[in-house]
Amino acid sequence: MPDIKITPLGAGQDVGRSCILLSMGGKNIMLDCGMHMGYNDERRFPDFSYIVPEGPITSQIDCVIISHFHLDHCGALPYMSEMVGYTGPIYMTHPTKAIAPILLEDMRKVIVERKGESNFFTSQMIKDCIKKVTAVTLHQSVMVDNELEIKAYYAGHVLGAAMFWIRVGNQSVVYTGDYNMTPDRHLGAAWIDKCRPDLMITESTYATTIRDSKRCRERDFLKKVHECVEKGGKVLIPVFALGRAQELCILLETYWERMNLKYPVYFALGLTEKANNYYKMFITWTNQKIRKTFVQRNMFDFKHIKPFDKSYIDNPGAMVVFATPGMLHAGLSLNIFKKWAPFEQNMLIMPGFCVQGTVGHKILNGAKKVEFENRQVVEVKMAVEYMSFSAHADAKGIMQLIQYCEPKNVLLVHGEAQKMEFLKDKIEKEFEISCYMPANGETCTITTPTKIPIDVSLRLLKAEAVRYNAQPPDPKRRRIVHGVLCVKDNRLSFLDIDEVCDEIGINRHVIRFTSTVRFEDSGPAIKTAEKLKTLLEEKLQGWSITISDGNISVESVLIKVEGDNDNTKNIYVSWTNQDEDLGSYILGLLQSMVQ
Amino acid sequence: MKLYCLSSDAAKPCFVLSFKELMIMLDCGLSAHSVLNFLPLPPVPSTRLASLPNYTPPHVNDPLLEGELKECCGRVFVDSIPEFCPPLDKVVDFSQLDVILISNYTCMMALPFITEETGFKGQVYATEPTLQIGRFYLEELSAWLAAGGAGTAARRWKELLHVLPAPLAHAQRPRAWRRLFSGEAMARALARVRVVGYDERVRLYGALDATPVSSGFCLGSANWVLRTPHEKIAYVSGSSTLTTHPRPINQAALRGADVLILAALTQTPAHNPDHMLGDLCVHAALTLRGGGSLLLPVYPSGVLYDLLECLSAHLDGAGLAHVPLYVVSPVADSSLAYSNILAEWVSAGKQARVYLPEEPFPHASLVRAGRLRHAKQLHDDAFCADFRQPCVVFCGHPSLRFGAAVHLVELWANNPAHAIIFTEPDFPYLEALAPFQPLSMKAFHCPIDTSLNYAQANKLVRELRPRELVLPEQYAAPTGAGGAGGAGGGARPHVVADGPVTVARRGAARALGVVRRAARGTLCGALAAGAAPRDLRAGLRAAPLVAQLTLRDARLELCAATPQGPLPAPVPQPVALGAPDVAALVRELAREGLGDARVEAGADGCIVHLPRHDTLLHVERHATHVFCEGRAHVRQALRRALAACTPHV
Q: What is the ipTM of this complex?
């Protein structure tokens, strides 16, 4: 089956809930299994009924691949494996396997405990789901079954993020997940080799941004924090324990170090140390610089960032506090918020997305007063900032990756339709390859050239190589091999005729044709032969024509001139049945020359 | 396919495989046995060593030999910077090597000897832990040896071996021994290494795939599987089927190889590593209870991690939790820190800890608790201030010829309360101790070598079923002849196989039984669709094929031929598989309008004569020769007639 089919169940012309179905060579692969954080109903999960309206889903999917631990890429996994009932293999990298369950649990708490939903997966389901995951290492070639092979490449986006190369038979696809082409504070740049896949499925979050604006956003963030604490204000940054929290800590830590600031920075949660430990232990996944220096100083042992104690809430003066949870829906971050919100000099920085119905969501939408269960009303006078820090490749980065990887087709996902349109144009113009951007639920079919594996006899190849190498080098020269195609046990081989005869135990029978042309030409035969050679060379450019002892060979067609010094010469042209084309052409040529 | 063996030390192998026009070096182990012939290099000057008497062989008066040899307790040592025995460089030109594949960090110490100043232009592949820990080993070696200064090398004794006493007299080719390379050469050699992961397929110049698979011996240790679509060669070096800290051995990947090369089996086949570890803990507890201190001469990684884990636990249980553990090595801090970030390379049990998240090895918590301390060298101020006895010191070098261990043995030699326990299997412990005799401190030999022993190797070979087995000569030696196996009468080798066994000796080249017959390519759909295979016999179908070859990036593609010049694209012609049936031929010719055929008997068959068309067909057993002087349509008719009555595809 030379077709590759792709159907996005999520991330088709949108961002959030990545889930892409890939079919090739009779295998169905699910790329990511994400959850949409903006919906409260069934729309938050991919529509698994698309795959199979009813009945078991496992027989329809050969494997699930998760690119990284962000919930919009793995959030629906426990739902799929524990509630929909998928029991097949699931692949992700070691850090993703370690960190994803913690984020899933955080999210589950928000949705179930805050919003009181009951039909949601449980903690136990998350644990059971993660137990089924096979962890892979970078560049490890994993055979899912006899025909399906996957391989992870470094993607840089977050700790443990990976791109996946997927092969079935002669067809291959690269799925990038989210990636980043410029090394950042703690991660390296994405890398892939020239694997020339038939298709590359790439994210396109920043399809129109030419320069990654991450540095600007970071500068902006640091400037705002600095200004606020300089005026004696308090900065609250609600975060989840893993992911962005570490990134922001590194950011503040290095800034505090560089600017020699003394304002206290606190990280408030029991998980902190544990969370940072994940980063310490997977340090091989961070960038070169952190890896080189970790023996002297582990980047995740923060010098300026101290653990927070509840009693510090009422401390006077400036401070920066990272507190969980990230959506201000409960716990410490909400408590701090209640205390600090009514004061203008304070500031709230929301570094991530907030689910509808959370305090964070209300405030981001501009609410100036927030009412709580016990009728407590809090006035929000503090400054509120939203900042996204996720590292994605920009348009230049995407083009770069395409250039490295040399795919034959490109398919865009995880971006906005308009921006995709622009990038699609650019890709098609610059690389002269097809580019696709299906919407959710839309199937995109890509036809690849049929290539059938075949064993070619070395005897055949060596004989050809001898002939080829005997001629002056010319990369454009046609290399033709005559032989026999054999089909045995459903396997193809290309053999020399003698090998086939040996195989079936018979002797080869050669059929040869010889014809004579009479030619009036005085002088010795050898002179005539040389004349003929000149003529043939002129007509048959690209063929190997040699002369020895007055015999001309045009590849395997033999031409012999006989006759004394008198006028008539006999020209014999002789060829085997295999060379009929060339032999009859030369004979015809000589005959027309005589007339 | 040929295999060259460049090392005489089976535990520090070095092979070169020539296959598909590639020269592939498998490991480059550095044999360090030679250093035992040298006097120790103390990190701080030792009056005892300095005052050892000179040795002069009887009846030899050679002024050049003056001061080269010293004597200690009846043994003669060379007083010079210790030298190593690198792989043989005369058999293979290192500049012609295409690839070096390294199996683990104990088998790569000779890398700079191969790659630096030899014109080497190839690639070197190793796993990440192999590169990092190998770097620690090399850096430590080079730091210990540099501490000894750069005295002139003693050379004269090498000319006078015949007059020297044993064991110096039996030194193997000492003229080829060399001093350790410079730090720069080492850095350059390590910079060449390309890092690979387990089960990663490395394309070697398009000719074949090399895949490192876990060998279970140490962090990042790998067996290499070389594969083409038709051939498979497995190089098994330093493997372990025991459960220790690294990832377990991947046997499935090694199964069914055409050639299995087996190297670096255990060096102490008579000692069970588990029992030795138990003995060690007992000796340690006894010594410490008696107020003595313990010295373990070890390498800075590997079994050290297991020792720290087991010994600390055992001492806790024995009420000796207060005894400090010291690791002294220029790379101690790096080695201890590094081992804890290799989550992807450790056993499942250790890996599970990372998900908690806790460090995979307990030594990180021992360091945090202050129980385990490490120092770059013995005379670090902070370390000296901290040093308490009784204690356990882990330090190099296991040969006791250089490194901090030399100083500690000198210091503790006269006190029978102290003990030294040898765990590394690379050196015979009595020889290691020879220059320190007479010795009062206790010496125990508890070698822990987790590599395959002979029984495990035999079991592995039986399970893997290679078509051909290659062994270094040591393992092919009869069990009875070896020292360890006892006085068995049978001539059965240590390792046997059902199939053919090839024995590799240092300096020898062996042709292996792999014969290549086919290369893998791809056939384009259009060409395949045009072929109409006919049954040749049951299960075998065939069709004539004319294909145009494309060879790009070592990829072979067959597509439909294109026209060239005045000729159309060549089409496949029927291939005759036997002589035509003459009677049928005459009938066919008549049908084509050539009805005047006359058949005459010939020398080896018959002659069909068509006088009207001036044409003769010599039909013989193996060939039919058509002499056709008729017009083109006559020849075409002849061809059709022949095709109709000749068996063909």
A: 0.88
